[in-house]
Structure to design on (83 residues):
């Protein structure tokens, strides 16, 4: 028999895993918990002050600018270099 045939009562829940790893979120192993953790990470830049905030915002804008430049470059290559 496969190891996944255990009764559902014996499987650990998200709260059980959170207790084992010392998480501060009870729902970190659910889709909504993951989204919440990403939001917490992204909002961490807003809580910073001084040079760390400036550096974080600069990195964010640099990444966005590089992504936009990559999309534009790809579109130009596709549209104008067709044979």
């Amino acid at each position: 028999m496969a190891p996944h045939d255990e009764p559902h009562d014996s499987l650990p829940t998200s709260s059980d895993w959170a207790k084992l790893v010392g998480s501060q979120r009870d729902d970190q192993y659910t889709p909504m918990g993951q989204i919440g953790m990403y939001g917490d990470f992204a909002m961490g830049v807003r809580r910073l002050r001084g040079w760390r905030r400036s550096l974080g915002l600069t990195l964010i804008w640099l990444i966005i600018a590089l992504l936009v430049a990559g999309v534009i470059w790809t579109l130009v290559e596709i549209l104008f270099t067709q044979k």
Q: What stands out?
A: The chain is about 65% helix and 0% strand. The helical segments are 14-21, 31-47, 51-80. The mean pLDDT is 76. The radius of gyration is 22 Å.
